[in-house]
Amino acid sequence: MEKVLRVRGGRPLRGRIMVRGAKNFVPKAMVAALLGQGPSQLTNVPAIRDVEVVSGLLNLHGVSVDYDVQSGILRMDPTDVELAHVADIDAHAGSSRIPILFCGPLLHRLGEAFIPDLGGCSIGGRPIDFHLQILREFGATVDKAPSGIHLHARNLRGAVIELPYPSVGATEQTLLTAVRAEGITELRGAAIEPEISDLINVLQKMGAIISVDTDRTIRVEGVDKLVGFTHHALPDRIEAASWASAALATKGDIFVEGANQPDMITFLNVFRKVGGAFEVLPDGIRFYHPGGELKSIALETNVHPGFMTDWQQPLVVALTQAQGLSIVHETVYENRFGFTKALRQMGANIQVYRECLGSLTCRFGQRNFFHSAAISGPTPLHATEMEIPDLRGGFSYLIAALAAEGTSTVHGIGMISRGYEAFIDKLHALDAEVELR
Ligand code: EPU
After folding, report:
1. Distance between CA atoms of 359 and 365, rounded to whole angstroms?
2. Do residues 256 and 287 make contact, with C-beta atoms less than 8 angstroms apart?
3. What percent of the chain has a predicted confidence (pLDDT) above 90?
4. What is the pTM assigned to this prediction?
5. How many angstroms separate the CA atoms of 333 and 340, rounded?
6. Active-site residue among 103, 121, 356, 362?
7. Pocket around ligand 1: residues whose beta carbon is below 6 Å from it?
8. Strand 141-145's sheet: what is its strand order?
């Protein structure tokens, strides 16, 4: 039976913790290793569940993976790539969306790929229509069956692709397929998140030719052969911002070793406007509550270089402690305010709205999704019993429990391990009163 975390809140988190490679980059670089003719090595790899899942998926496809947790070094040898059984992939992948990114590399290596039909999750429908359309444009045949999606291609050819929305996954899909496709691919409306830039770094080391224009256009000249890579993963800016929000909500002071200012400029601006303080040092960033009242803000999430959707949930907990009315408009996922229900039960004053409360044109405005929130504060939070709904929502619950007076009981913490390395050890290092039972 999964263990339950008891959190005695109401005390500031103080101390030093470290973040390693980004959860939303490392698995993609691991998939890129499939394209190399020789072994690859990735460093700064965190011990998170998503890395375990992708290691298992690579194993199922005949790739040997060797990971040393302590040093964070992960080695992959794709010499004997083979097709895996879809039932095994399905059983192993769980809620991971990474199998879809195996398609391009497997089509290049084996001429076919078979993946489970990925479903939605608690933050939205999470469709894969862009991915399948892209693969078709490269020349793949896509057959949907009840057991999964079967893809074939004799020869993938470069294409001109226009994304309806700058999707991170669809941009990665295009990159991982275009690098070995015949001829030139032009991707318009691409996502340009730092995790994508780092994937481009990896692919360039492997021999790919990729250029990025300022207008979200990425051009890839296909090559015949890619080699293995050695790469140090960029740090996890979502984890760093999550700890920063925890520092703010608990009136604490946390030094996040590994946090990287250039990837967090937008977050740091907002953190400062809310009344948080930070100090950028050579090996990380110190985030702290400088005393006084936190200030309310109006905020809209957006694709990079906007304010990340993944930063939204942890920050909303801190906003419950700000003076006045904060407005948050979520424009990336249609359903990312479900977690506010638990915060309301803890005493927060949060209302959610179907309307777009912001100036951005958003895809969800007329579609009945509660995607804007008004948070009125400050409101003291009190302890409760909670069930983790999703990764970021889950960490936000944890922050709320740490900020609340009394002892909260948190169920389903396994979900947090998907993207937060050794978070219970880190909580101990920050002097939190938490106990695993
Ligand atoms: N979308 C479609 N069709 C598609 C693909 C996406 O409509 O085929 C829509 C989505 O439904 C969503 C929007 O496009 O509304 C953006 O989705 P995107 O493809 O950018 O997201 P993703 O690649 O599935 C990654 C991260 C997410 C992060 C988003 C946005 C990984 C494994 N996941 O997801 O991370 O929120 O980019 O930055 O990289 C998380 O870490 O908690 C997390 C959810």
Report:
1. 11
2. yes
3. 89
4. 0.97
5. 15
6. 121
7. 23-24, 97, 124-131, 165, 167-170, 191, 238, 308-310, 332-333, 391-392, 419
8. 112-115, 148-152, 141-145
Residue with tokens 């030094």: 255
Pairing mode, if any, of strands 284-288 and 253-257?
antiparallel
**Residue 237 and residue 221: Cα distance in Å, rounded?**
30
The tens digit of pLDDT for each residue in 339-357 reads 999 999 999 999 999 999 9
190 pLDDT higher than 70: yes
The mean per-residue pLDDT over the stretch 214-234 comes to 97
Q: Is the peptide bond before 290 cis (omega within 30 degrees of 0)?
A: no
* Cα(167) to centroid(ligand 1), Å: 6
Within a 10 A sphere around the Cβ of 277, how many other Cβ atoms? 15
Please say if 362 is a catalytic residue. no
Nearest-angstrom CA–CA distance, 41 and 54: 15
Q: Helix (H, G, I), strand (E, B), or coil: what is residue 129? A: helix
- Tokens 């479900």 identify what position? 338
DSSP count for the chain of H helices, then E strands: 13, 24
Cβ contacts of 304 within 8 Å, gap of 6 or more: 191, 192, 193, 194
Minimal-distance CA residue to ligand 1 atom 24? 169
**CA dihedral of residues 391, 395, 396, 402 (deg, nearest 10):** 160
| Candidate from 174, 332, 335, 362 with most ligand 1 atoms within 8 A of CB, to mutate | 332
Nearest CA, atom 40, ligand 1: 310
- For 28-59, the pLDDT digits (tens) are 999 999 999 999 999 999 999 999 999 999 99
